[in-house]
Amino acid sequence: MNRQLTTSILIATTILLITVAAVGLSTVRVGAQAQSGGNLTAADVARIANETVTNVLAKQLAFPIEAEVEPRRGCPACHDLVNATSGQFTLAYEAHAATKARNRTHPAFQPTDNPNVTECFACHAPGTGARAGKGTVAPLALRDIVHPAHLGSQIFKYELGGSCFSCHNVDGEGNWLILSQKVDTNDKGVPNPDKLPIPGAIPAP
Ligand code: HEC
Ligand code: HEC
Ligand code: HEC
Fold this sequence. Notes:
Layout (H helix, E strand, L loop, with lengths): L2 H34 L5 H21 L28 H10 L16 H8 L17 H10 L2 H6 L8 E3 L5 E4 L21 E2 L3
Antiparallel strand pairs: 1-2, 2-3
Helix pairs in contact: 1-2
Bound molecules: heme C (HEC) (3 copies).
């Protein structure tokens, strides 16, 4: 969305809300007149209109319509070592943080290791037979961890503009391939046509 369009939307929203407030006011005035014969003063109208604009601007700041979100596709586009001491935000760091939150310890990697998602499948691939619904070795299959953890995350969805296509590419047979490497894309997230098939796009285990 371009800046002009966004600004127009913001102005239109503001005008709409002021109109709604004004309509609300006339109702209040009719009611007030009926009860006591009183009228809202011009100062009241100005105050309420001003509060309305302030509220709209506050919302705009909290959830910018025009956030410039750089597309990120492939786990390492978001999960990379940015703090050599804590390990934030490698996949190993995430594994340790999530298990620690349950007062348990993750059995593989140090938080500062920077493994590829393929290494998680050694234990978190979907189990079969007696382990159906679980991971092959770990209690949970990775899909049952990452789907809710991301699609329910405000940070993933709003701050980072995440979606299914942050982690997947759907191939011609309808397979949801996993983007195990950072994908080279344009500003819309479309892969670079000079580098196809997408490097690191692998079938789910
Ligand atoms: C667009 C950015 C983005 C991409 C791409 C991404 N993640 Fe994440 N991931 C996040 C964010 C943000 C969180 C933390 C969510 C929160 O706490 O609100 C997270 C959290 C996690 C967690 C912790 C889950 C938990 O239970 O706490 C794991 C595991 C994880 N990601 C794995 C992956 C894997 C595997 C991939 C690739 C298949 C991937 N992520 C791709 C942004 C991303
Ligand atoms: C050697 C096997 C093994 C490997 C490899 C492994 N895990 Fe785990 N993982 C486990 C086990 C076992 C647990 C359960 C630990 C517990 O609860 O005591 C677990 C738990 C987790 C949890 C916590 C889920 C929850 O909410 O309870 C996350 C997140 C996780 N692993 C992510 C990962 C990621 C990401 C990778 C790859 C970087 C990975 N794991 C690699 C065995 C493994
Ligand atoms: C954070 C990364 C991430 C996001 C976001 C994500 N997925 Fe996944 N998805 C995975 C991973 C990793 C697996 C494989 C995990 C496993 O085998 O346990 C998977 C597996 C799947 C599979 C099974 C594929 C197969 O061949 O078995 C489907 C279907 C799927 N995802 C659909 C979706 C849809 C639809 C969305 C959006 C609503 C979505 N995913 C969002 C990471 C993600």
